[in-house]
Design brief:
223 residues, alpha+beta, six-stranded antiparallel beta sheet, 7 helices
Length: 223
Amino acid sequence: MKVLSAILLSAFSVLLMAQNANQDTNPPVPTVTYDSYWQAARPQNVTITVKSDGPTTYLSRNPDVPAGTDRAQDPDYHVEFTMSAANRNKIFQLAEKANYFHGDFEFHKHGMANTGRKTLTYADIQRHFQTVYNYSENKAIQEITAVFQNIATTMEHGRKMAFMHKYDKLGLDAELKAAESDAQSHQLAEVQAIAPVLENIAEDPTVLNIARQRARKLLKMAK
């Protein structure tokens, strides 16, 4: 009986592992993942995963920066938030237009400047497709890339603001001004994800008043 129980337990464990692996590959909720890697950039690697019902994960890191001062100042940055319905719907509609990333979308006509390796992945209970590109002339791929890059820009502003609020309050105004400029040129998205950082700055009397005003202006965008 002990041998039979051990065999059954082992078989159950294998089945459970297979089910978990299948859920990672073919999740029950449609999921789009954007991953970019560019060694010369900071951060070098950005991964954004969004589910069709809203939960979103942002992760940035510098895997190829040698341990030292730079690495200490730029640790892995992880944020979870709920993506707005507008951007969420746009992402999944664009994924559908791009055949759920099933195909080669890289531009091959001539060489292009390297702007990093980008990977788009679509997965649901029935499909799992992935495409890798540096640059694409496909309009849907261009638009979805822009959405994710704007989210990354927003999140990195939030990371820098949180760091400066703690260690360099005098530098906050310049960072907030840069975020304002990006907002005016439509290069920010999902500002509500960094609202807690902006609120902390806006409510801190030890921060320069002009920086607090800029934080409040960005908070209005988040709402």
